Amino acid sequence: MELERLLQSQGFGSRKMCRKLIQSGAFAIDGVVHDNPRESLDPTGLQFTLDGESWDYREHVYILLNKPEGFECSTSPTHHEGVHSLLPLPLAVRGVQPAGRLDQDTTGMLLLSDDGPFLHAMMSPRRHVPKRYVATTKHPVTSEMLQALRDGVLLRDETEPLAATDVMSLSSHEIALTITQGKYHQVKRMVAAAGNRVEHLVRTAIGGLPMGDLALGEWRYLSPDELLSLPYEAPGTGK
Ligand code: URA
Question: What does this protein's UniProt record list under function (predicted)?
Answer without folding.
Answer: Responsible for synthesis of pseudouridine from uracil-516 in 16S ribosomal RNA.
